Amino acid sequence: MPFNFPIFLTWLRIVLIPLVVGVFYVPDAWMSEPHRNAAACIIFVLAALTDWFDGYLARKWNQTSAFGAFLDPVADKLMVTAALLILVQLGRIEAAIALVIVGREIAISALREWMAQIGASKSVAVNQLGKFKTACQMVAIPMLLFEAPLRIGGWVIAIHVWGVWLIDLAAVLTIWSMLYYMKLAWPQIRERGGIL
């Protein structure tokens, strides 16, 4: 198993996941709800930043590896799933939204694995629609973790409202991108799955 700084950042992202969840189980006597929300938001943002940096540095320093390519999306999916489950438990998003997002990740991961096994992985490579969906959910989740209105000077930004709007948009884009990937894979599914 190779080990370099980009892979270290990916492992760091995995280590940060229990912290995002754990702050909500800290006793009230130790940490107030606004502080828990802020801490979870900050930890999630730090973890999300490692996602950008590990890929950027791996390419820049020519330290890409098959193990890194495997671990990076696993870390991303664990991070997003953990955050969504906490948000459902806190009543900040609907369970259906989390189910759509997590279910799509499972389905597309399985589809990509199958397409790779038959030598057609390029057919379902990440595209701009998938990247936009990811951007929406990665902005929405810290907003929903923070939850409280943000006051900047005389302005008040309804963080929770924007977070809900963005996570709903991410859910719509999740379905759209899944249908797009299924359309790309359909010729192989028909041919190899025996579907008429």
Short description, anyone?
This protein is mainly alpha-helical and 196 residues long. It has helices at 5-22, 33-60, 66-89, 95-117, 128-146, 159-193, and strands at 150-152, 155-157. The chain has a two-stranded antiparallel sheet.
Give the secondary structure arrangement, pairings included.
Blueprint: H1 5-22, H2 33-60, H3 66-89, H4 95-117, H5 128-146, E1 150-152, E2 155-157, H6 159-193
Antiparallel strand pairs: 1-2
Task: Write up what this structure looks like.
With 196 residues, the chain is mainly α. It has two domains: 1-91; 94-196, no CATH class. It contains six helices and two strands. It has helices spanning 5-22, 33-60, 66-89, 95-117, 128-146, 159-193; strands at residues 150-152, 155-157. A two-stranded antiparallel sheet has the order 1-2. Helix 1 (5-22) runs antiparallel to helix 2, helix 3 (66-89) runs antiparallel to helix 4 (95-117) and helix 4 packs parallel to helix 6 (159-193). It starts with a helix and ends with a helix.
**Cα distance, first to last residue?**
43 Å
User: Helical element count?
Assistant: 6
Q: Which structural class matches the secondary elements?
A: mainly alpha
In what order do the strands lie side by side in the largest sheet?
1-2
Uncertain parts: none
Radius of gyration: 18 Å
> Which of globular, elongated, flat, extended, rod-shaped describes the shape?
globular
Task: Find the count of extended strands (DSSP E, 2+ residues).
Answer: 2
Question: How would you describe this structure in keywords?
Answer:
globular; 6 helices; mainly alpha; 2 domains; 196 residues
